[in-house]
Amino acid sequence: MDNDLELTVVNCYSCQENRKLPAEAPLHPWEYPSHPWSRIHIDFAGPFMNKLFLIMIDAYSKWIDIHVMNSATSEATIAKLQHTFATHGLCDLIISDNGAAFTSKELADYVKSNRIEHRTSAPWHPASNGCAERAVQSFKEGMKKIKEGTVQEKLNRFLFNYRVTPQTTTGLAPSELLMKRKLKSRLCLVFPNIEKRVKERQQKQKHYHDKKSVNRQINVGQGVFARNFAICSKIKWIPGEVIKQSGPLSFHIKLPDGRVIRRHTDHIRVRNFDCTKNENEEKCDNDSELFEPEITIPISTPETEQPQIEKPSNLTEQIEPRYPKRTRRKPLHFKDFVLN
After folding, report:
1. What's the fold here for domain 223-300?
2. CA angle 113, 119, 120 (to 5 degrees)
3. Polar residues compositional bias: what residue ranges (predicted)?
4. Domain 39-188 classified CATH 3.30.420.10?
5. At what angle do helices 74-88 and 105-113 cross, to 10 degrees?
6. Which residue in 40, 45, 69, 79 sits closest to 57, CA to CA?
7. What confidence tier does 319 reach under pLDDT thresholds 50, 70, 90?
8. Exposed, middle or buried: residue 242 (CB in 10 Å: 0-12, 13-18, 19+)?
9. What are the boundaries of each domain within the chain?
10. The pLDDT of residue 32
């Protein structure tokens, strides 16, 4: 009897006309694009706040563009699409519903001329264009939360906050996925700027260091004294001539014997006399063997070649002991023993 009743209802035309909707079909999500601005979803929102809005959302980055519309005609829609494409470039695919502005011949000719594919969702099934529907919902909720300002000011604030906020789906802000960078906001001021902090510390260090420093001007071709770091040498300063500036504070100095050494400006003093043309010539020549022979920078030019200086074989004989030799005596308690 139950089967007969069920069969009767199934075959009843009036019963089928007034039956509820069947169970929803399994979810079939859109394929995630491979790059930004490949597929965009568009839809109209409104009338809302006495205005009509055209909403566009990028399926890859979730970036939203919203335009205030005076009318929902195909000409106005094409004008806003051109405005957006002027910033982000043409997309590959547009998804929309079956509104009159989206199914018009003008829009079909526009997308065809730009080699853009246009697909429409199933009629009366907003979930097929769920990305745009969700963007409309977020837009309306965000606009209602902003109490002050005109409609355009509220729209600007909403778009800015939305674009810098990480999305739950992607985990990143739309600006990072579309522009490959973070948009600066007031929230960024909370986090320290590493580059700025390092520069401030360097300036502070320079300020205190330069209080006791002297700015010495050293030029190429100038006669100078260079600090001598040779072991066991009694000469602290070596006469020479600056032949090259190798850095902001370092110079190459040519010595009287032809060798070239490198010194920091802290190890250079200006020489006020010529070591080769006055009474100091003999003193400088006699002490040249005590200059440091191990720190030599060979520099050759097309005009002259610097000869290679060999280290003297008797260098060890010239080096005097650093400390005087100590006289060693045997301990007294070993006086009765024979020690080797």
Report:
1. SH3 type barrels. (2.30.30)
2. 130
3. 299-317
4. yes
5. 20
6. 40
7. low
8. buried
9. 39-188, 223-300
10. 92
d(CA 53, CA 12): 46
From 303, 306, 216, select the one nearest 261 (Cα to Cα). Answer: 306
Q: Is 304's pLDDT higher than 50?
A: no
Q: Are strands 51-58 and 223-227 parallel, antiparallel or unpaired?
A: unpaired
Q: What is the DSSP string of 250-309?
A: EEEEE-TTS-EEEEEGGGEEE--S-TTSSTTHHHHHHTGGGS-SS-------SS--PPPP
119 or 28: whose pLDDT is higher?
119
Mean pLDDT taken over the chain: 83
**Domains 39-188 and 223-300 alike in fold:** no
Predicted pLDDT of residue 317: 47
Q: Which residues contact 300 (CB under 8 A, 6 or more apart)?
A: 306
Both structure tokens of 252: 């190459």
Q: Which helix (H) or strand (E) holds 184?
A: none
Q: How confident is the model at residue 1 (pLDDT cuts 50, 70, 90)?
A: confident
Q: How far apart are CA 105 and CA 118, in angstroms?
A: 12
Closest by Cα among 171, 139, 169 to 155: 139
Report whether 116 contacts 91 (CB < 8 A): yes
Element (H, E) at 235: none
The CA distance from 48 to 41, in Å, is: 19
Query: Could you check whether the bond before residue 298 is cis, i.e. omega within 30 degrees of 0?
Result: no
